Amino acid sequence: MKPIWAWFGYDEPNYTYMKDGKKLLTELSKLSPVPVYVRTHSLLVTGDGTAALKWGSTNAYTEDASGKPIYNWAIIDSIFDTYVNRGMKPLAQIGFMPQALSTHPEPYRHYWKPGDPYNDIITGWAYPPKDYDKWRELVYQWVKHSVERYGQKEVESWYWEVWNEPNGAYWKGTREEFFKLYDYAADGLKKALPTAKIGGINIAGTRTKGAIEWTRQFIEHCISGKNYATGRVGSPLDAVLFHAKGWPRLVNGNIRMDMAPQLQDIRTGMEIAQSYQQTKNLPLIVGESDPEGCAACGMATNPENAYRNGVMYSSYTAASFARKYELATRKKANLLGAVSWSFEFEDQPWFYGFRDLATNGVDKPVLNVFRMLGMMKGGRVQVQSNRMVALDSVVKNSVHGALSDIGGLAAKSKQTASIMLWNYHDDDKPAAYETVSLQIAGLTAKKASLSIYMIDKNNSNAYEVWKKMGSPQNPTAAQITELEKAGQLSRILNSKVKPKAGKITLEVKLQRHAVALALLEW
Predict the structure, then answer these.
(1) CA–CA separation, 144 vs 464, rounded Å?
(2) Per the confidence metrics, is the pTM higher than 0.90?
(3) What is the residue extent of each domain of the chain?
(4) For residues 505, 511, 514 and 517, what is the CA-based torsion angle, rounded to 10 degrees?
(5) What is the pLDDT of residues 416-441, one digit of tens each?
(6) Nearest residue to 394 (alpha-carbon basis) of 424, 431, 433
(7) Looking at the chain, which terminus has fewer C-beta neighbours within 10 angstroms, N or C?
């Protein structure tokens, strides 16, 4: 059971080393049995490091009056130090364009806020470089510095990738100019560290006709196209990256989720990679894999995003990751990771409805799904359920039917068995408890310890506790302590069991959108 979930990302790089950013990264590093990979935007953007929504900067590259490059790695170092010191790894994004290199340097800094047109964020950082040799040298110097600071072995374990969603608003050049951008970046990286791993292209809307065309042309360029930087054939490609997003909306005033587009994106990305002999076995990374597309669009401006604070986000996450595993198995794809583009937003209103894992240092229910996943050791094993919606149906229609999706994801190691259960439906409507009969077979131990962990309205849920407090925007220190405790994963059962003929049967009651983990240890 490859930990494809241990990948996270966010737009605002300067949150990384701020108070709540460090706290959350520490929690993510501790919940995972393997190093967590982290991706963030704007690592090469010009500015003073001030954090803001959908904005960040490091001032890594400026020029003097004569046009000579000036490199300053201080802010990037503080970001990567925060990761490496916690045993985490960068999925290092080479972008965006420094102001001094941009072909359209003005306007550059934006001041976007929720409710503003999304295109307001697209400024001088989104344009091609005016000098590709300087762009290559910037990447070379960055990677060379990284090796000097962290060591060759450490940097060899990272992944690097160029830009973000070049088929969308993030790139104001042509397709060929993007391929040129990639070639020069890859050449600079490989000159600094030949064994460094680089990939692309983090396309948006992977399932769509235009994105498929973009991705195929990019892969074919890397396989057999003329390299703009070297003049040789092909360009380095060590991983294939693409994006996958769902589509929640309001239906008669109620939230309706839709994971079908997200899973269709993932299926399409796998199929494209596997259609080429040169890429079919490469690692696949879903560079952003989420219920929808704008993490900084809160529920005040986008009411369909109100799912983010409570357990609906939790059950969606559990049910969708199970299908990612199913797709990878069916397609025999080398799915290495799926980046949840969800982090935290520093100094913002409590439970504003951002797509984040914590609010003001208090964990949201969804974070506890990742804590559960981190407890699942060993290899994935078969789960059968008479209420788990078939993969093909979910990929086509999500879970819109009369019955909810009650399914499981299970793993077994030498001394543990773990089964995650969920009760998921696309619609945010109340429903009665469901009693799940959980039968576990094939056990060889004569006795075991059984723990059941629960995420629902009553457990592992700081949001419900906050609402009962009266939804304070200035909670007291005592209230914050209570909320922090409520945000942790709740164990609702701890007992001893004795399998009979290698089997045990449990009953687990699940609220609508609840997620449970049954953990056996012997």
Answers:
(1) 48
(2) yes
(3) 7-374, 379-521
(4) -20
(5) 999 999 999 999 999 999 999 999 99
(6) 424
(7) C
